[in-house]
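Supplementary notes for students who missed Thursday's class. We covered one full example, reproduced here. Read the sequence, then the structure, then the short commentary at the end.
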Amino acid sequence: MTNETTTATAGIHTPAPWLVQKMTENDEYPYHIVPDTDDFAQPHIACVEMQQAGDEVELANANVLAAAPELLDELEDAVDSIRQLYSGEWEPDDETLEKAVAKHEAIIAKARGK
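Structure (token representation):
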């Protein structure tokens, strides 16, 4: 088993948004990452294992995991925008840039649990 992503699975993941779900206090995996859907047939995406570092670190790890698909989408969009900007294909106005920054800041806040 390797850590490499194969071409067949690259880019395939449960669509965003993902949420952090708190389990019972004594659960070995106190935080589960789940899709934000009413479809209860959807499996959990990940579980954060209880660590000696404590609940604060476990929750921070869970928040970063839950924000992962949105962070990936925004990073891909940002790279595309930078390419268009440098190629001269795009000249954004201030309002467009402000909206993009606000969207990025909201996703960063989600990753930080805010």
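Commentary. The chain has two helices and three strands. Helices lie at 55-87, 94-111. If anything here is unclear, bring it to office hours.
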